[in-house]
Amino acid sequence: MSAEMETVIGLEVHVELSTKSKMFCGCLNEFGAEPNTHVCPVCLGMPGTLPVINKRAVEYLCKSGFALECTVAPFSKFDRKNYFYPDMPKNYQISQYDMPLTTGGRVVLPSGKAIRLNRIHLEEDTGKNVHAGGHMTTSEATLIDYNRAGVPLMEIVSEPEIGSPDEAEQYLMALRDVMLYIGVSDVKMHEGSLRCDANVSIRPVGAKELGTKTEIKNMNSFKSVVAALEHEISRQRACAASGERIVQETRGWDEVRGLTYSMRSKEQAHDYRYFPDPDLPPLSLDEATLKRWRSELPELPAQRRERFMTQYGLPQYDAGVLTQSRFDADYFEAVASASGDSKQASNWLMGDVRKSLEGHGLTLSTSKMTPAALGQLISMVKSGAITGKAAKEVCDVLVADGGDPKAIVEQRGLAQVSDESAIAAIVDKVIAAQAESVAAYKGGKAKALDYIVGQVMRESRGRANVDVVKRLLTERLG
Amino acid sequence: METGHDIRDAIARRDRSAEEVTRAALDAIGRVEPSLRAYITLLPERAMAKAREVDAKIAKGEAIGKLAGVPTAVKDLFCLKDALTTCGSKILANFKPPFSSTVVQRLDAADAVIVGKTNMDEFAMGSSCENSAFFPTHNPYDLEGVPGGSSGGSASTVGARSVPLAVGTDTGGSIREPASFCNIVGVKPTYGRVSRYGMIAFASSLDQAGPMTADVRDAADLLGAIAGFDPMDSTSVDVPVPDYGAGLRDDLKGVRIGIVRDFEESIAVDPKMAKLYKDAYEDLAKLGATFVDVTLPHAKYGLATYYLIAPAECSSNLARYDGTRYGVRKDGDADVYAMFDKTRTAGFGDEVKRRIILGTYALCSGYYDAYYVRAQKVRTLMKNDFDAAFAACDVIACPAVSCPPFELGAKSDPVAMYLMDYFTIPMSLAGIPAMSVPGGFVDGLPVGLQICAPAFEEARMLAVAHAYEQATRHADKLQPVVS
Ligand SMILES: [Zn+2]
What ipTM score was computed for the predicted complex, to two decimals? Predict the structure, then answer.
């Protein structure tokens, strides 16, 4: 094969919904609890138990559907997907087969390219096998934690339109941003609340038909998605180049060795024997409910980014960063309104606040600094109550400990000094001490003045009004 | 025969104590149990404790439930907290659920005294009660005969007058057929009328719990106690439960009864059975009923349809029995799938395996449309048949069974056994209420008359059955050989 090859990727993304309770019972949906403490007869699939649909999960899925421009079906149903596995309490999973809650829709990447969606459906998660003593093949025993069994899971299936591992990552990030915005999931990959399978194939550029695809299972970080896809694509390209046949199969991703490996071939593929779950009547959603859910959607990241650029005149980069999380974007808007200066609000958040947050290992949402406090600090700088330099110090205190900026300024004696006689005393002291610089300045080295100003500021611990300092210095050294 | 409502009234009047009644019932069960083997588990301590609780309520002048102090048996597929619940299967031989089924909770709330868990065909699959993994139950009218299945234990203990009330379940006829064989009243309510929560599933879209009782009034009272919406069961229906007892009547003036032409041809092959049903219809006429002919053109596909849908659902419902979480486990040395295999091979009986295989096959991707989907379409046609029939009549009267109880071991061919449910399956597929009421005797053995009504019209059905029962009193004409 000599033709130029292109990559075709389709992603199946599983997102755990952050409802209070599980999909079909009242158990808490909460990560990190002691094994098998959030279980009941229903989610353990005990004989005689029956599922009851969690309406909030349906709402969350529909809202996700609206946010991704899907068609939300007023009538859908739940099916059973039958297969045996010890972490599945009933040995069938309640899922949606031929009538999912949503179809169509799209995810728009920052490049502007839209990846079309095939569907989003709702299902229940399985439990988790824990192999005592390490690996499945060597462990003495397998323990099962069913806390996750029955957690509502949304499966977002894209069309095979993703062209590269980089695009796959952008797609996942865009999905994550939307889910965080509408508050339906915390989307934490390391806690398993976002998991991803990929269908990968290659074909000659311009070809209509898809090549033979392989499915890569269960990648659990954005990094591993990119790495696994890169490896699989180069493997397939090598196959194609050497004339070897690409086998349709399911492949696993070995994080440690950095390669994909064959799990099972198409011949061993499951027949899931889907059929409508007779324990659940079809789900019908009335128009008014759907309309209400749609109206409750917040502004989405892409829209908000656009608005930040037009309304606040922010550069694309700043708008992108500030809208990455809904919390940060809300925070920015609150600071802009409290300070009355959106440009300064952005400057602070993108600059000193970010640095300080990083220094303390915090984020805006974990910091104790309120938007009102930061807004007030910005106002204080603008009004001349405090110098920019002192404000940085106050900002760092706010980020770490919270509090009221005025009180901090008072407590630390950081108020700007504009009183001429007080400043004049310092100026005189510095002129006396910095004879060399004074001489240099007088000798025509204009730059030396900056140094002297800096010394005065230092002597005043940053509190002196710099305009007054400059005026007094030029008067005296005139 | 002493009825549940007689006992309840006597206890309420303080003529007898619940404790006395319960002890007598446990004694009666103990006397006949060696010949009948109707129970998998007896719960004497729980029963006595409940009886004392009822007596205490009465002593304190507190309100008592509608079934206060009445000895009641439940089929061994109703989960009962911390009590053995085997579903007639070896695979659940050690299973004690950590919760009680809604039916059990409602019996407790109505102050019924649950005396034990009755024998049944394994996972409710069978028409003779010979498919229990533990032992067969015997018919109280003929100890060589079967009590009918799958609720045979419940039918047998009520037929033997040990207890007046029992709860059974009906998927394709499992309440009505054994009721017919044991000369008692058996009611399959509308699908969705009684919660299935905590009832070990066979075929979810068909299973329905119902009363098996000494007389129609008891059936009305028991149904009233267990019926009604349950938020734990999404298929239970939120419609009001009428006072069934208040609607019972003694004549049938103005009632139009549908006679199913298609069934008449089937029953005609046995002249004795044909004669019994002819007499039964004449008795109904004497009470003032008028008759209309109705047809159920798709009834002949009932068995084929049923034996696709029920096994399909069972193959999925029974997948959970793999030895991992509860029940009996057989160790597999190779891997977890070997454990599943060994556990299921040892744990399930032949009939259960047969239906799992049948259902698995029917759901396979290549056959799904040809079998499962088509069966569901026939099911819709069956519903339409009944809708059309009930446009012309108030209730339908028809045979409950094609024969009187047969001898244990007589039907070794599974298909011959499946045919036992010929007259009961169409109503199950349509989800409508249907019941069997004692209808007379053939060769000295009991046979039931089936009465069916439109969905949620149990009151109408019970009213007709009551009038017929009061006029004929078949249940009183023949005493069980053991009691
Ligand atoms: Zn639960």
Answer: 0.96
